[in-house]
Amino acid sequence: MESETIISEQFYSNNSSAISEKSLNSSFFGTKEKTQKVHVERPTSPFGLAVLIATFLLMIAGVYLVFQLQDDFEQFHFERIASTWGLPFLIITTILFFYQTGVFLYSSYLYLRYKSIPSVSDDLLPTCTIIVPAYNEGKLVWDTLMSLAESDYPAEKLQLLAIDDGSKDDTWYWMQEAKAKLGDRVTIFQQPKNAGKRHALYRGFKLGTGEIFVTVDSDSIVKKDTLRNLVSPFVVNKKCGAVAGNVQVLNNKKAILPKMLNVSFVMSFEFQRSAESQAGSVLCTPGALAAYRRDAVFNCLPEWINQTFMGQPSDIGEDRAMTNMILKQGFHVLFQRNAVVLTNVPEDYKGLYKMFIRWSRSNVRENLMMAKYAFKDFRKESKFGARLFFLNQSFKIIMTYPFLLFMLFFIVVHPILFLSSTLLAILVFSSFTMLFYAKRYTLSESFWAYSYSLFYTFSLFWIAPYAIATASKRGWLTRGL
């Protein structure tokens, strides 16, 4: 998974994904007085409160309309069954519903069994190369490098590489400033021209000397114990080829969209990736924080750097592609909930939809790649979880257009029935996300799960069909934002 962003001093603000004061490095995050301010709970802004109230009023209205229009729903149901396409569509949706329910129950079972691997002792920690690619990040890269340098990891086992990918701003200046402060603890490089994140990472892989490669986005902040927690699975599990970090939203107190995404990220990582990890089959290690076994990387490095899609060089989805190629080798890919990285997310609609388009295109491409080996004997251990999660993603892609057509038909024929049933569905299905976040963190922030579902359903529903139709298009999309 990748994160787009604009990071600044807001990492001093309160974050509901809450880093405890003891876990922060005061020399980087500020003085004791400042860290105390970090944990002062802020009330929801008037606008945010208005959004939450409007969300619940809409869902309540939806429930009321569904109750009042029961006869109309029954009539629509009978008309649909009587139509030529209605009954087959109903059968398919029923099968998919029970399938999705089964996947959810299986994922819940795996989640309940999941436990993070605790950090091993200093003498057992492997040598580690951290690669930080940067493009037009300005001072943000300084913040990232400082947080990494303050990590609780044996300095003699740590190699820190920062690579400026042909930036047009003062990124290189801030890398030089970091070099001046950290000395031999960091090595900086400058690409002759912007070639893309994949090529910057490739240079880091080729220069790295560590047993483990760690990639960190240059707009992200790690906790003090993140690195040691991230790489410990490689020590205790020799079949581990890659590890995904736990990405949380840093700027979730600054704008409405980050508040929503904060809840969504917790569900995506702490529930879904925990389940995938228990099956040894995390499908995507996020660009914000990931670790890879050196041998696993070099086994697929030529294929990865030369990857194409429909005859065009792949310049997106480098994290998902690397994960796919490591899974294909038979390695396990795990998730460490205790390896936390804080990253900013887009605060406006344009930045958000562009980020989602890029992620969705990558998802389409890599599902096609995974289809080539998912049902082969790609590893000795159980392949059930990997295959089930792959099928789940594939079915969502395959059914995108049929459901879009049905939705449009429903809107044209029965707009009120569509609106009311959709609002009821959001209330029901988002409640699990809300309860999960409330259990893990805070109740007050958990209600953004409903607002996010409402926002996504009515303003971002077009992302998936558009990404499928344009999967071959190149471009990072958000670099100019």
Automatic annotation (TrEMBL):
GO terms for biological process: extracellular matrix assembly; hyaluronan biosynthetic process. Keywords: Cell membrane, Glycosyltransferase, Membrane, Transferase, Transmembrane, Transmembrane helix. It comes from the Bacteria. It is found in: Cell membrane. GO terms for molecular function: hyaluronan synthase activity. Pfam families: Glyco_tranf_2_3. InterPro entries: Nucleotide-diphossugar_trans. The chain crosses the membrane at residues 47-67, 87-112, 388-410, 416-437, 449-469. The keyword Cytoplasm does not apply. GO terms for cellular component: plasma membrane. SUPFAM superfamilies: Nucleotide-diphospho-sugar transferases (SSF53448). This is Glycosyltransferase family 2 protein.
